[in-house]
Amino acid sequence: MTTWRLPQPTALGEDSPLEQASIPRNPDSLHPCRRGRDTPVRAAPPRRRQVSSFCPPAHSCNDWIGPPDRHSNLRPIVFHIPKNESPLGRRLREFRQETQVWNQQFWASQNVSFRKGKEEFIYSRLKAKGLEMKDETGQKVTLSAEEMADFYKDFLRKNFKKHMCYNREWYKRNFTITFLMGQVAFERAWSRLGWKKTKVGN
Fold first, then answer.
1. Could you tell me the end-to-end alpha-carbon distance of the chain, in angstroms, rounded to an integer?
2. Fewer CB within 10 A of the terminal residue: the chain, N end or C end?
3. 64 by DSSP, 3-state: which?
4. CA 202/CA 198 separation, integer angstroms
């Protein structure tokens, strides 16, 4: 499980851009591409898990970001929950949390597929040459950059549609987050303006 010690978590502002950690309410929303009647086309991660059990200090008023997750390579965030959170602010926070989970799980699954495909490719190429995965000294036998380029090209070709669907969903989610952040900022400004008017009237 990812620890929150190296480096120490860094405090971010409430309205800092989305980085990526929570458990989704609807598992079907974890992948942007669906077939038929809401059937996800993603490969499920090896096992369900929380990104971290870290809990920020009670007095903290900021989001907290941790070190990269070892499966997705993305940095998880624990989002601050204000005491007087408005329904709109809660909607923004929960959508950011959901998007973070979706992003974490997509890349964790994608990285597993990449590593597995890479191992199988290297094994098949070495087998064709009559070589083992390790040499006489126990060192891993590697392929040349030119040979590995064939794997990278094939992997991108096979996952082209999946990446296109991911990019579309990513832009849609970021647009929604940006729109909600604008609404929350306007709501706060309007609330402060109303408070000032009340104070002047008194």
1. 55
2. C
3. strand
4. 6
Residue 80 near residue 63, CB atoms below 8 Å: yes
> What's the average model confidence in pLDDT over 127-149?
86
C-beta separation of 108 from 72 below 8 A:
yes
Average pLDDT of the residues of the chain: 77
pLDDT band, very low/low/confident/very high, at 200 (cuts 50, 70, 90): low
Spacing of C-alpha 41 from chain mean position: 18
For the entire predicted model, the pTM comes to: 0.65
Tokens of 70: 């070892």
Residue 96 has pLDDT above 90, yes or no: yes
Distance (Å, whole) CA 98 – CA 169: 13
Q: Which residues pair with 64 in a beta bridge?
A: 11, 78
Q: 74 and 35 in contact (C-beta within 8 Å)?
A: no
Task: Quickly list DSSP for 71-111.
Answer: TT-PPPEEPP--TT--HHHHHHHHHHHHHHHHHHHHHHHHH
Inter-residue contact 176 to 95 (CB < 8 Å):
yes
User: Which stretches does DSSP call E strand in 5-137?
Assistant: 10-12, 34-35, 39-40, 63-65, 77-78
Q: Residue 54's closest CA among 79, 36, 73, 74?
A: 79
